């Protein structure tokens, strides 16, 4: 969902508005996305589902 939000913002040319958002907010937002994706993958990495293989 967050990635989709970033894509839509990029396509709508809202990139110039990033100048008004503090870098700490931007870093926290993208770090949160990365952590969410990584934690969702841990289950599949350690306990693969044999039925999908």
UniProtKB/TrEMBL annotation:
GO terms for cellular component: membrane. InterPro entries: SLC26A/SulP_dom. The chain crosses the membrane at residues 20-42. Residues 1-46 form the SLC26A/SulP transporter domain. Keywords: Membrane, Transmembrane, Transmembrane helix. It comes from the Bacteria. It is a multi-pass membrane protein. This is Sulfate transporter ychM. It comes from Budvicia aquatica. The lineage of its organism: Bacteria, Pseudomonadati, Pseudomonadota, Gammaproteobacteria, Enterobacterales.
